[in-house]
């Protein structure tokens, strides 16, 4: 049976049936290429590699070579389904029951990709294939993985070719309860910290002959986790630090360990830049360490700095499209985790708007069939309005 490319439900089912668990392509990018090429998109498949990370295949599809380039960004990779016997339906069967479509990736985010493709096909059909600009899709297979060989490298490839993006929609599921709740116009930064406190191993019966790093580490992480970083800003909630791992390489109760370590994560707002935040946290550690004569090492990692897309034509056009189709005025928010928007923001204004995120990464992940149609109509209205205004 021929796939109806204007039907978001059929497209979502077809994509879910591609078992594209990170980093496997699973046939999902091949399916998209087969759909987009007949519609006039020039499709470029690219594989990126880096030592110590899995090879990842990506897709950049472009239709048009003039005017502004409106890009849709997303990912076809999905997280593993977990225990299969916990699912009430097979995770890659894409079954519909009582108006609900079940399957891994239904909302995160094969459903969003399907809605945008269906919206594009409907728009092209309504305009006899004419668009006063350029449409593109940047689809990675690495968003749920390390995010090293995916979007960031496709963007570098575009830069080397001299190709620019003028605006981007990331189709992540952005709505907490219903379509039209929220548009994400930014994200908090995410910073990981790893602290190692060095001591001297010894017998627990002779503590003066050893140097116990455990209470010293406790002093440092207590200082980190109880210090208020800020009170929030106009567009962001307060920054917060969460200690996530405490580890002591010791299994004997009568041995004082030679070292202790902890890891923490900071979600920070636009009151900080990453260098300033790292410096501030290091200062807190040094002050606490000085109080207990602790010797420590501190390192940082992370791939996402805080960003904000100020309300302008991109945001206003999406707000109008959502309001016209749902009757709701979406809140402009910056909460939640990270997404590939953290890479795209260095290239063009970017927002996130997609399906309801209630079941992402869960057993029996699902989406209402009606929501797929609603999101498709929003995207279609947005595409028309964006090119009409520019």
Description:
This protein has 390 residues and is α+β, with helices and mostly antiparallel strands. The chain has two domains: 8-187 and 306-389, Aminopeptidase; 189-304, 2-Layer Sandwich (Alpha-Beta Plaits), CATH 3.30.70.360. It has helices at residues 8-16, 28-36, 110-126, 151-161, 213-226, 274-292, 313-326, 341-344, 369-389, and strands at 42-48, 56-63, 69-75, 96-97, 100-102, 134-140, 167-170, 182-184, 186-187, 189-198, 202-203, 240-247, 255-256, 259-268, 295-304, 307-308, 331-333, 350-352, 366-368. The strands form six sheets. A six-stranded mixed beta sheet has the order 1-2-6-3-7-18, with helices on both faces. Strands 12-14-10-15 form a four-stranded antiparallel beta sheet, covered by helices on one side. Strands 4-5-19 form a three-stranded antiparallel beta sheet. Helix 1 (8-16) packs antiparallel against helix 3 (110-126) and helix 7 crosses helix 9. The chain starts with 7 loop residues before the first helix and ends with a helix.
